[in-house]
Amino acid sequence: MSKARAAIVAGPQAAIKKARYSQNNTVWNTLFKRILIGIRGLILPVLILGIWQFVGSFYDVSDTLLPTPAAIFHSFLDLIFTGELWAHLKISIWRAAVGFGLGAGLGLLFGVIVGFSSRSEQVMDPTFQMLRTIPHLAVAPLFILWFGFGELSKVLLIAKGAFFPIYVNAFLGIRGVDSKLFEVARVLEFSRFHLITKLILPAAMPNILLGIRLSLGVAWLGLVVAELMGSSEGIGYMIMDARQFSNTDIVFVGIIIFAVVGKWTDSLVRVLEAKLLKWRDNFNGDDSSR
Amino acid sequence: MSVTIKSVHRTFKKSQEEDLIVLDDVNLHIKKEEFITIIGPSGCGKSTLLKIIAGLDRKFHGSILIGGQELTGPGIKQGFIFQEHRLFPWLTVEKNIAADLSLNDSEIRRKVDELIEIVRLKGFEKAYPRELSGGMAQRVAIARALLRNPDVLLLDEPFGALDAFTRTHLQDVLLDIWKKKKTTMILVTHDLDESIYLANRLVIMTPRPGRISQIIEIDMPYPRKKTDVRFQAIRQQVLTEFEKSELIH
Ligand SMILES: Nc1ncnc2c1ncn2[C@@H]1O[C@H](COP(=O)(O)OP(=O)(O)OP(=O)(O)O)[C@@H](O)[C@H]1O
Ligand SMILES: [Mg+2]
């Protein structure tokens, strides 16, 4: 996690500092550093995979319990070449995207509304806080009852999860705007529009982006629950199906796909963060060797 | 614009029972195009008074008239330069100066460039506040206020973070703008030389409760020289006033 952050946030900053102080070698230096940071993040996974493969090949471990990395990779290639994986992934991504879009959009909207007015906070926030604590698994049966086994119940379940992190964070971000800068906005006679676009949204942006990241994570979790509770396609279904036929390697492929896509979307938001928050002066960890 | 401060009182709640009287019956009439400096020990209510004049603090008793009109609230015609720079951290230098105005407007663009030149920040137009020193940031804040052509400019220790050279330069800039634009200036400072260098009238405040203890007319032509005998004489006079009110701290 922190590896990606260092690479994205510290990378360009380090590059700028370097460029100012010395002219030569800077490109190579930063490239070398980035590769080094990348390698550092790979040490642990590679080690674990090595031991895993070793144990699987030389001791008698049942394939149903723990297939070797090579076997998993093999069925991964199989799934790709038959086109099965992509078909499942497509529908999963679609569900997650629609659910996330709906939930995060509404969460942002209500977070901003409640952030702006204490009256709407008094009216809405207690209800939202109550709903927030209800777990997915508790409402899943209800959603199925109301909306059937189709896409709607799944999308809504994902949306429910994605709603709250961004709602809470947008609200916090807006309430956290420095009152000293509000005074400046009053002296400069900002219009309501400029108050929002020049002061409140930029000030709340770190929180909003954090909310988006947390929402994305929760959306993936919601997706798993939604697909496990009954569907005929999607990565979650693929896992369920493979488990029934004891194809543990495919279960692993599914889990890894979830992890990789989750990480990848998270990195995407981090890139967005690095772009939108480049004005921030951040602490990036204190290893002088970095 | 003239500024009239009529029997202004301001108290802050210290605890349930106890009130802290910060300003007690402050009266001052500032004529159009005057340059007033306010000097006084830390905590005597200088910033509080400026905020009241700016319209930012409405919880006072008494009244403030700007150009004969009752003050209704803050606005661009009462420019304010805060004790801290208060720049928007997410905006570059030029965008901080423009703030809600658009740099795509060629007239604004021209004025912003001109002001960047005046406050000597050429080359830093695209820098973010975190990349600036304290003094540079304060100069951006000054440019931001000047862009709006205020009738009254309120300055709360604006040059505190600056080195002597930049300080003198900006004092001259301020005098220049004052002469050209006829802005009424009210500047709070800790620096005796600065207040004599700039002011028509120098206001001395005493603490607990904050009151105006002395107003000294400085009838000396600009530009003033700090080595001038008259300058030194006024300095001596002000120091004597300070001693009288036992203000040396
Ligand atoms: N918001 C506030 N709440 C409570 N007390 C306050 C508040 N603002 C100022 N005070 C009190 O009012 C008094 C005057 O404060 P003020 O900031 O006006 O002083 P000052 O003359 O500007 O001092 P300095 O030269 O250090 O800036 C101080 O004793 C301070 O504790
Ligand atoms: Mg002050």
TrEMBL record, chain A:
Compartment list: Cell membrane
Coiled coil regions, renumbered to chain: none
Chain ranges passing through the membrane: 35-55, 93-118, 130-149, 155-174, 195-212, 218-239, 251-272
Keywords, sorted A to Z: Cell membrane, Membrane, Transmembrane, Transmembrane helix, Transport
UniProt keyword annotation of Cell membrane present: yes
Keyword Metal-binding: no
Membrane topology: Multi-pass membrane protein
Family stated for the protein in its record: Belongs to the binding-protein-dependent transport system permease family.
Designated name of the protein: Sulfonate transport system permease protein
TrEMBL record, chain B:
SMART domains: AAA
EC number annotated for this UniProt entry: 3.6.3.-
ABC transporter domain boundaries: 3-232
Name of the protein described by the UniProt record: Sulfonate transport system ATP-binding protein
A GO MF label: ATP binding
SUPFAM superfamilies, alphabetized: P-loop containing nucleoside triphosphate hydrolases
Taxonomic superkingdom: Bacteria
Protein source organism: Peribacillus deserti
A Pfam family per the record: ABC_tran
